[in-house]
Amino acid sequence: MELTVIAALLSTLLLLSNLASIVLASLSLKRPRQIAPPARKAPPVSIVVPSRGVEPFTEETLARAFSLDWPRYELIFCVAHADDPVVKLINRAIARFPEVPAQLLIGDDRVSANPKLNNCVKGWVAAQHNWVILADSNVLMPVDYVQHLMVAWRPDTGLVCSTPIGSRPDGFWAEVECAFLNTLQARWQYAGEALGLGFAQGKSMLWNKPMLDANGGIEALAAEIAEDAAATKLVNGLGLRVNLVASPFEQPLGQRTFAEIWSRQTRWARLRRVTFPLFYTPEILTGVVVPLLLALVAAASAGVSLPTTALGVLAFAYVPECLLAWAKGWYLSPRIVTAMIVRDVMLPAIWARGWLGGAVEWRGNAMTIRTKAMTELEEASSGA
After folding, report:
1. Per residue in 208-257, pLDDT tens?
2. Which fold has domain 39-255?
3. pTM assigned to the model
4. Could you tell me which residues are beta bridge partners of residue 48?
5. Separation CA 266–CA 285 (nearest Å)
6. Which pairs with CB-CB distance under 8 Å and at least 24 residues apart come from 268-271?
7. How is the chain split into domains, by residue range?
8. What angle is formed at CA 175 by the lines to CA 61 and CA 338, rounded to 5 degrees?
9. What mean pLDDT comes out for the span 51-63?
10. Are 175 and 336 in contact (CB under 8 A)?
11. What pLDDT sits at residue 376?
12. Would you list the DSSP string of 199-245?
């Protein structure tokens, strides 16, 4: 009887925490909406876009970047190598939209083990304005992209970000990626912000350039293997907050494979484990697997129907998640609950993989994930 009560209580607490995170995120999030154009006196903005390779929606994301409703902004595209096929598409877009100041910079500044950050350095140096957005090339910018970021900036803000919201999936595994990005990762990130735990997300980052330059510049983001983790710690260390936009930006997915999802999710897991181990550790309790197993243990001990118990747990977990996606205008389909189940089955394996070391790959670049203590130990050993 004691085992039954403990298992049932733990399962209930986990399911309620899951529901609470959905409620908290729902209060912070808003459906996509267009913000009115700013006054002509709005500050000019530099948008730095690190690019590598051609993706299914590259031409569309490029066109969106040149079509923003902001009085003055410049686009700075950064590519590490001149033979990258994306160079032709960027040059074509620059020629197509001559009314928008834009330039393409090629080169690789090795300030860190993070190839994306290295690619951004030259763009940061070239940026002419005090407000700089670091924007991933696969973000589908709405026409009021800059407005959404600027509106979220407050007197105590050090950085404004947006999580990616997966859209336009082509195939089941892309729907699984939507289940990861939207009602799991975005939901917990917005719930964390509601609790005062704002974490940066590298997809879109609005910086005040003088502030960051006064605190080490873009090179300061090399303090961690992930630039968003370094940004979070830097901003919090200054006593400032990381804010999220109310309506996060879309990332069209296209086709995905299981291998691509596994590689991406395990890479992110290992980055989170190295940079924020105390927050990473309880991630095993997210998703439905642990509360479902506990509920089944309690049901078996009490002689309650196992199928009925399983259906009840799944309904309690996934109905609110689907309602969140529906309320915020995110992707939904008849297969989304199946995708959520597959996602949650993968989560414990991804979490376990996050504790293992070794190199990971980011767009063809090998990255060795190590802690600051590991680096210091290696430096001390090499100097001995």
Report:
1. 999 999 999 999 999 999 999 999 999 999 999 999 999 999 999 999 99
2. Spore Coat Polysaccharide Biosynthesis Protein SpsA; Chain A (3.90.550)
3. 0.90
4. 76, 134
5. 17
6. 269/350, 269/351, 269/353, 269/354, 270/353, 270/354, 270/356, 270/360, 270/369, 271/225, 271/226, 271/229, 271/369
7. 2-25+275-362, 39-255
8. 170
9. 95
10. yes
11. 41
12. ---TTEEEEEHHHHHTTT-GGGGGGSSSHHHHHHHHHHHTT-EEEE-
| Residues across the chain | 384
Q: Which two tokens stand for residue 313?
A: 């747990």
| Alpha-carbon distances of 177 from 77, 167, 245, 330, 367, rounded to whole Å | 27, 9, 21, 13, 22
pLDDT value of residue 3: 85
pLDDT at 379: 40
Are β-strands 157-162 and 204-208 bridged in parallel, bridged antiparallel, or unpaired? antiparallel
**In the numeric block, which tokens belong to residue 12?**
């209930």
The type of residue at 162 is S
Q: Could you report the per-residue pLDDT of 332-369, keeping only the tens digit for each?
A: 999 999 999 999 999 999 999 999 876 555 555 555 56
Amino acid at 289: V
Enter the DSSP assignment of 110.
Answer: -
